[in-house]
Amino acid sequence: MDAAGIAFPDTAGPQISIREVDKNKITFVLSNTELAMANALRRVMFAEVPTMAIDLVEIESNTTVLSDEFLAHRLGLVPLVSADAKRMNYTRECNCTQYCPNCSVELILNVSCQNDLSRDVYSRDLISSHNTIKPYFESDDDRGVLLVKLKQGQELSVRCIAKKGMAKEHAKWAPCSGIAFEYDPHNKLRHTTYWHEEDIKSEWPRSIYADEESESKPGQAFDYKAKPEKFYFTVESTGALEPAEIVVGALNVLEAKLAALQEALRMSSDDHLDLSNLPIQNGPIGNYY
């Protein structure tokens, strides 16, 4: 995905300026919008951009030192490449009885140790039934996440089912490993209280964005009507999605939510509908991603 294509056509509306983008991280500045909208974007990137993750684990044989529950938890947290997650159905919306190829992906893990040396089992040993939805690797030489170590005579045979979900349901579906979010680098709005002993400037490090905005002059009166103008984001991906895809996916989610709310309010105004029955209160709205 071309990160330079992430922009708003209306210059009077919100603007995104891409500062840096690579395989695992994107840094950008959001401006011409409210703090509430910037924070909403941060929260949606964390919690409502769907990915694929192992949700069901059927253990056929486990003679390792780790319990079944421990292994199932480790498998669930393995990042899966989820660029094609938007083509998958949510299990709750699928017509199948439990799971099917339209809403799930099967991964098989079948390993054993036959020699007197120990064997490390990595996510590279997981075999996926899907061409693209499979464990994430940094490079061709990367073996992935270490799952368990086997001694001679030990074996592990597991069948996993990956499903589409969001991090607000469980953290294993989180597309982000972290999001740095900052505004007002000089604290002119006084939204932060710095604990200090003698001098704030000497005891607290200067923000890397301090040169982006002007600092308050000594003795300048506090403007209680002032609002933040720029919001500085750094989004780090788990590998499930490219950083730019996370940002675009979150914007799509926000757009769909606001569109649904606008339509519901319009219908309520026209027909005097009961607002308690609005679809926006009940999970995902439509197929926005």
Summarize the structure.
The protein is of the alpha+beta class and 289 residues long. The protein is 19% helix and 25% strand. Helix 1 packs across helix 4.
What distinguishing features does this structure have?
25% strand, alpha+beta, single chain, 289 residues, 10 strands, disordered C terminus, 4 helices, 4-stranded antiparallel beta sheet
Structure description:
With 289 residues, the protein is an alpha+beta fold. It has 4 helices and 10 strands; from the N terminus they run ββαβαββββββαβα. It has helices at 35-47, 68-76, 200-203, 243-271; strands at 15-21, 25-31, 51-62, 104-112, 119-122, 127-128, 146-150, 155-165, 176-183, 230-237. It has a 4-stranded antiparallel beta sheet with strand order 1-2-10-9, covered by helices on one side. Helix 1 (35-47) crosses helix 4.
Distance from N terminus to C terminus (CA atoms, Å) equals: 15 Å
The low-confidence parts are: 280-289
Q: How many DSSP helices?
A: 4
Total beta-strand segments: 10
Strand order of the largest sheet: 1-2-10-9
Structural class computed from helices and strand pairing: alpha+beta
Helix percent band: 10-25%
Percentage of residues in strands = 25-35%
Average predicted local confidence, pLDDT: 88
How would the global form be characterised? Answer: globular
CA radius of gyration: 24 Å
